[in-house]
Amino acid sequence: QQETDISTDEVCQAVVAETARSDEEQKEEGNLTGIVDQPMTLRIESESSPNVTMIDLPGIKYDTKDAGERIKSMIRTYIQPKSAIILVVHNATVDADTNQGFELAAKV
Protein backbone atom coordinates (compact mmCIF):
# COMPACT_ATOMS: atom_id res chain seq x y z
CA GLN A 1 0.00 0.00 0.00
CA GLN A 2 1.43 3.37 -1.00
CA GLU A 3 1.52 6.14 1.60
CA THR A 4 -0.35 9.25 0.52
CA ASP A 5 0.05 12.66 2.11
CA ILE A 6 -3.23 14.04 3.32
CA SER A 7 -3.83 17.60 4.39
CA THR A 8 -5.66 18.77 7.48
CA ASP A 9 -8.28 20.30 5.18
CA GLU A 10 -8.93 16.91 3.58
CA VAL A 11 -9.37 15.33 7.02
CA CYS A 12 -11.82 18.10 7.99
CA GLN A 13 -13.76 17.64 4.75
CA ALA A 14 -14.00 13.88 5.39
CA VAL A 15 -15.33 14.49 8.91
CA VAL A 16 -17.88 17.05 7.70
CA ALA A 17 -19.06 14.72 4.92
CA GLU A 18 -19.41 11.76 7.30
CA THR A 19 -21.25 13.91 9.86
CA ALA A 20 -23.71 15.08 7.19
CA ARG A 21 -24.24 11.50 6.02
CA SER A 22 -24.82 10.29 9.59
CA ASP A 23 -27.19 13.18 10.36
CA GLU A 24 -29.25 12.40 7.26
CA GLU A 25 -29.36 8.70 8.14
CA GLN A 26 -30.52 9.50 11.67
CA LYS A 27 -33.28 11.80 10.38
CA GLU A 28 -34.51 9.06 8.03
CA GLU A 29 -34.68 6.70 11.02
CA GLY A 30 -36.66 9.26 13.02
CA ASN A 31 -33.85 10.18 15.43
CA LEU A 32 -34.13 13.96 15.72
CA THR A 33 -32.14 14.27 18.96
CA GLY A 34 -28.76 14.58 17.26
CA ILE A 35 -27.40 11.97 19.68
CA VAL A 36 -25.84 8.97 17.95
CA ASP A 37 -24.43 6.07 19.95
CA GLN A 38 -22.20 4.84 17.14
CA PRO A 39 -18.72 6.35 16.79
CA MET A 40 -17.54 7.92 13.56
CA THR A 41 -14.30 6.19 12.58
CA LEU A 42 -11.66 8.01 10.59
CA ARG A 43 -8.56 5.89 10.13
CA ILE A 44 -5.25 7.56 9.31
CA GLU A 45 -2.19 5.34 9.16
CA SER A 46 1.41 6.40 8.89
CA GLU A 47 4.78 4.81 9.58
CA SER A 48 5.87 8.10 11.14
CA SER A 49 3.13 8.27 13.78
CA PRO A 50 1.96 6.00 16.60
CA ASN A 51 -1.16 3.87 16.46
CA VAL A 52 -3.78 5.91 18.28
CA THR A 53 -7.55 5.77 18.31
CA MET A 54 -9.19 9.13 18.95
CA ILE A 55 -12.87 9.28 19.82
CA ASP A 56 -14.62 12.65 19.80
CA LEU A 57 -17.57 12.35 22.17
CA PRO A 58 -20.50 14.74 22.38
CA GLY A 59 -20.47 17.51 24.90
CA ILE A 60 -22.69 17.19 27.93
CA LYS A 61 -25.31 19.66 26.71
CA TYR A 62 -28.84 18.44 26.43
CA ASP A 63 -32.47 19.48 26.34
CA THR A 64 -33.91 16.64 28.40
CA LYS A 65 -32.79 14.52 31.34
CA ASP A 66 -33.03 11.40 29.15
CA ALA A 67 -30.68 12.90 26.55
CA GLY A 68 -28.21 13.87 29.27
CA GLU A 69 -28.18 10.36 30.71
CA ARG A 70 -27.70 8.84 27.23
CA ILE A 71 -24.72 11.12 26.60
CA LYS A 72 -23.16 10.44 30.01
CA SER A 73 -23.63 6.69 29.55
CA MET A 74 -21.95 6.87 26.14
CA ILE A 75 -19.05 8.86 27.58
CA ARG A 76 -18.59 6.40 30.47
CA THR A 77 -18.35 3.52 27.97
CA TYR A 78 -15.37 5.10 26.24
CA ILE A 79 -13.49 6.49 29.26
CA GLN A 80 -13.62 3.29 31.39
CA PRO A 81 -10.71 1.37 29.80
CA LYS A 82 -7.46 1.79 31.73
CA SER A 83 -5.67 2.55 28.45
CA ALA A 84 -7.93 5.55 27.75
CA ILE A 85 -6.39 9.00 27.82
CA ILE A 86 -9.16 11.45 28.62
CA LEU A 87 -8.99 14.97 27.22
CA VAL A 88 -11.76 17.18 28.56
CA VAL A 89 -12.28 20.29 26.43
CA HIS A 90 -13.42 23.27 28.44
CA ASN A 91 -14.35 26.86 27.62
CA ALA A 92 -11.95 29.07 29.58
CA THR A 93 -14.64 31.70 30.19
CA VAL A 94 -16.79 29.26 32.18
CA ASP A 95 -16.19 28.09 35.75
CA ALA A 96 -14.38 24.72 35.61
CA ASP A 97 -16.24 23.53 38.71
CA THR A 98 -19.44 23.35 36.65
CA ASN A 99 -17.92 21.21 33.87
CA GLN A 100 -19.48 17.74 34.10
CA GLY A 101 -16.73 16.35 31.87
CA PHE A 102 -14.16 16.87 34.63
CA GLU A 103 -16.53 15.19 37.08
CA LEU A 104 -16.94 12.11 34.86
CA ALA A 105 -13.19 11.89 34.21
CA ALA A 106 -12.39 12.11 37.92
CA LYS A 107 -14.65 9.13 38.67
CA VAL A 108 -12.70 6.65 36.52
Brief overview, please?
It holds the Pfam family Dynamin_N. The chain is mainly α and 108 residues long.
Structure description:
The structure is a single chain. By secondary structure, the chain is mainly alpha-helical. It has two domains: 1-56, no CATH class; 57-108. The protein contains three helices and no strands. The termini are far apart. The relative contact order is 0.10.
How are the SSEs ordered, and which strands pair?
Blueprint: H1 8-28, H2 65-79, H3 100-106
Protein name: Dynamin-type G domain-containing protein
GO molecular function: GTP binding; GTPase activity; microtubule binding
Domain Dynamin-type G: 1-108
Helix count, per DSSP? 3
Extended strand count: 0
Q: Supply the number of structural domains.
A: 2
Decide which structural class fits the backbone.
Answer: mainly alpha
Q: Tell me what portion of residues adopts beta-strand conformation.
A: under 5%
| SSE series | HHH
Bulk shape: globular
Strand count, sense and barrel status of the largest sheet are: none
Distance between the termini: 39 Å
- What is the C-alpha radius of gyration, as a whole number of Å? 16 Å
What is the percent of helical residues?
A: 25-40%
Protein name: Dynamin-type G domain-containing protein
Organism: Spongospora subterranea
GO molecular function, one term: microtubule binding
Domain Dynamin-type G: 1-108
Keywords:
3 helices, microtubule binding, globular, 2 domains, 0% strand, mainly alpha, GTP binding, 108 residues
